[in-house]
Design goal:
A three-stranded antiparallel beta sheet has the order 1-3-2. The protein contains six helices and three strands, in the order ααβααββαα. A hairpin with a 7-residue loop joins strand 2 and strand 3. By secondary structure, it is mostly helical. The protein is globular.
């Protein structure tokens, strides 16, 4: 990064870190997306929905809660989930406590499909992170948690421009 008089050294360091984090995240996501598409003809966004529903209670989860878990808009969840419903992998039903809300849960076929994909996904993630030692994994997790905790919350908006990005089941493979 060129030395700019209006950007302080701490700002330059922060920008370098941000660009490296973003670059690594994009490279990892691209790799996992390609592998998931090649092996199962499924987008990573669809896998993310299945992963979150797999971890949900048996009765399912409200779509608004699912969108908050995935940190995306309600519209994005609906768009990604619609084909999963048509394929019989996800069941959508009215919320018993609120007629205005909908619930979603995995069907038996959805559960079996997810389980088949999840073990391969875990292997791919392990391969990507294999250059790190156990100590480096712990350091990375600590630093990312510290950074996340210090990051101010964004104001809530529902632009529909988000994409599902929270990958992996809660089996040690989640990002």
């Amino acid at each position: 990064m060129a030395d700019h008089t209006d950007i302080s050294e701490p700002q330059q360091q922060a920008l370098r870190s941000w660009l490296r984090l973003l670059g690594s995240s994009n490279a990892i996501r691209k790799s996992l997306t390609g592998q998931m598409q090649a092996a199962h003809n499924v987008s990573l966004s669809r896998f993310d929905i299945l992963a979150n529903l797999y971890r949900a209670p048996e009765a399912g989860v409200r779509l608004s809660a699912l969108s908050k878990q995935l940190m995306v808009s309600n519209g994005n969840v609906t768009q990604v989930m619609t084909p999963l419903i048509k394929e019989g992998l996800v069941e959508r039903q009215p919320c018993p406590n609120d007629a205005r809300a909908a619930m979603a849960r995995l069907s038996a076929a959805g559960r079996a499909t997810f389980e088949a994909m999840a073990s391969e996904h875990a292997e791919w993630v392990e391969d990507i992170f294999s250059p790190l030692t156990a100590t480096e994994h712990a350091q990375l997790q600590y630093l990312l948690e510290k950074l996340g905790a210090a990051t101010p919350a964004a104001p809530e908006t529902d632009t529909g421009a988000d994409t599902v990005t929270n990958t992996g089941p809660n089996t040690g493979t989640s990002a």
